[in-house]
Amino acid sequence: MKAEIITIGDEILIGQIIDTNSAWIAKQFNRAGIEIYQVTSVHDDPLHITEALKKAEEKVDLVIITGGLGPTKDDITKNTLCKYFGTKLVFHEPTFEKIKKRFANRNISMNKLNRDQALLPESCTILPNSAGTAPGMWFEKGGTIIVSVPGVPFEMKQLVTNEILPRLRGNGKLKAIYHKTVLTQGLPESMLAEKLAEWEDNLPGYIKLAYLPNPMAVRLRLSAIGDDEKMLRESVEEKIKELQQLIPENIYGYDDDQLAGVIGKLLIKKNASLAIAESCTGGYISHLITSIPGCSAYYKGSVTAYSNEVKENILGVSPNTLEKYGAVSKQVAIEMALGVKKALNTDYAVATTGIAGPGGGTEEKPVGTVWIAVASPTKTAAEKYVFGGNRERNIIRSAQTALQLLRKLVLKE
Amino acid sequence: MKAEIITIGDEILIGQIIDTNSAWIAKQFNRAGIEIYQVTSVHDDPLHITEALKKAEEKVDLVIITGGLGPTKDDITKNTLCKYFGTKLVFHEPTFEKIKKRFANRNISMNKLNRDQALLPESCTILPNSAGTAPGMWFEKGGTIIVSVPGVPFEMKQLVTNEILPRLRGNGKLKAIYHKTVLTQGLPESMLAEKLAEWEDNLPGYIKLAYLPNPMAVRLRLSAIGDDEKMLRESVEEKIKELQQLIPENIYGYDDDQLAGVIGKLLIKKNASLAIAESCTGGYISHLITSIPGCSAYYKGSVTAYSNEVKENILGVSPNTLEKYGAVSKQVAIEMALGVKKALNTDYAVATTGIAGPGGGTEEKPVGTVWIAVASPTKTAAEKYVFGGNRERNIIRSAQTALQLLRKLVLKE
């Protein structure tokens, strides 16, 4: 089965919001064996929407339209769909009851705009939206399924998961697709490609390989498409086993594995605990660690020591060290790591101190200079990096690098 | 001038990466007066790329293609472009010298894949890439400009900013566009729409209004398109002044203003300092605060007190309070806020304690229950929320709500 995603909304085309909906839908659909042929973002404009629908219908079996269903006046999708499918808006009592109940529960009164959300195209199947007021609409036309859902991510996700996918599964006959992504660190893309050239040449024709570089990692995605899902999976897993022999040091995870989650698993295995001291990363490492469910099993907490006062008073960094070497130094990084490890009574600790920018750089220590220290029950180490990007990039790279150093340390001990 | 963005890459269509490039390009282009007609994401497939190019050429004056220019074998864009423009790849000496120098600086050796990046279409203008090895390619065909840039965000941004926009500005004749977005809090979309109905009806025809709801805010975007930029800007600003009269309490900022930045400005005005104590938000509020350049003027730091031990030992939360009321309680939130304010010696503090999920919920305190406390030199207050979303959503909403409470407190005092 082939699908196209059409997102409606000027806000995407002027760059005000990033289209995260399409990525989410693409991922879910791929897992369910539906190939995404194209993603098209169009204006809140009836002609443009109609044109995109027509083109998509020629190419795919399923079109999913997101956006353009809010209660306010910029809503035009419903009317365009009515015209396209030659139907008209009718009042849908069950939807109206739901909207009424929703407002009553929140103790706010309804107005005409809210009531109008119960006006829906007569010829479609209504998909109930348990997370909001605008329901999904399921149309069929000459073998193509066209579904329209609201653009609010939470509501869209509920509709895809609870309504659209179950209905499509009922149809049967989905083509088998198997993807697996190998996450690597420590080799640049070109070196990795050279090392894997022979392995790559021996991939069977139905497995496609793609290199997906990141600032901090190179991901290798293997995609197999065919009829027999079990065979595809086994074949991909077989090739990944070969890969594990070729670059054993470089693979740190698979698919959606996050470095913070990989570290969490290692710490749980060791029954060890972790604390973090952050200066330039400002809480971002702690945020990455606490984004992993269940992290309270190993994570005790962190101190963001943005001012020197906090470095001294809470982490016990010596005023002498601060004065002699400056806040961005090997010595301060190490004292921060040891200080937070002691104050929070943990087995491991990681600390960052650097100049995120845009201000604060000097000739000797330019913007992007970062010292990262790690401490284990028996070892302490620190490394210097000069990333030199903008503030956001420096924070992200510092945090990811800190987690890499931490992973290596926990792995070795 | 009208443009289309074509992004090439299977990774977008299987949902492995989110297409942030298009949003960034759209924003820059809009600011420069170039309207984005459509964003189209296609597969790494010569036929599909060619088809998308043909369709775009019919509609727009400028096509920008991102992705598909890495050194590895999944690269097919260059060959497709050669075929499309009836030209061939030739060796480009200046590009080769740049690549060589880049590798020498990093002390790593080049291989054939790196050398092949200097093979470029004969008929295009080469746009030098100061951030990577793959240059941009600028083609012209029957009045349409087609530019291809790498998909690595950092490299793409350099090329758009330093090469593409300056060249387009040289062309003259760009249509004037003026956008401004008003950020509001405290009124749901439908109520806001009702309150603003008359104002909206009186908008001139060349100003378009859109409601962009968020979990935490409703943004109102005013877009004016015409010939005279000064007139458009003045007209939009005039309408925004009227808006300030209509909903003075609800507007907290404009365009890219972030709540953390708005709070920062208020604190600088008062010459006041801030500390944060986080449990369920795990460092995310501190990350938001430290994402603002110059925050060291008011921000001293934070304590992520994930374990009760840290709440007691670092923040001075009483063991009695923890036992009597539990970690997720009004009393603990207040003691955390007062504790971090004292330990870090600041004027203001905010604290969160809650159950982010997916585990840890009870009947009395379900997943999503959060207590948020704020403290000023003279006041302390706490509020309870039950968000009840998933972990990520609970963390984000808790952090945004904490910043809202903080903003209100700082504003009042």
Task: Please characterize this protein's 3D structure.
2 copies of one chain form a homodimer. Chain A has 413 residues and is of the alpha/beta class. Chain A folds into 3 domains: 170 residues, 3-Layer(aba) Sandwich (Molybdenum Cofactor Biosythetic Enzyme, Chain A); 79 residues, 2-Layer Sandwich (Alpha-Beta Plaits), CATH 3.30.70.2860; 154 residues, Alpha-Beta Complex (Maf protein), CATH 3.90.950. Chain A is 42% helix and 25% strand. In chain A, the strands form 4 sheets. Chain A has a 6-stranded mixed beta sheet, sandwiched between helices. A 5-stranded mixed beta sheet of chain A has the order 14-13-15-16-17, with helices on both faces. In chain A, strands 10-11-9-12 form a 4-stranded antiparallel beta sheet, covered by helices on one side. In chain A, helix 2 runs parallel beside helix 7, helix 3 packs across helix 4 and helix 11 packs parallel to helix 16. Chain A is globular. At the A-B interface, helix 1, helix 2, strand 2, helix 3 and helix 8 of A face helix 1, helix 2, strand 2, helix 3 and helix 8 of B. Strand 2 of chain A pairs antiparallel with strand 2 of chain B, so a sheet runs across the interface.
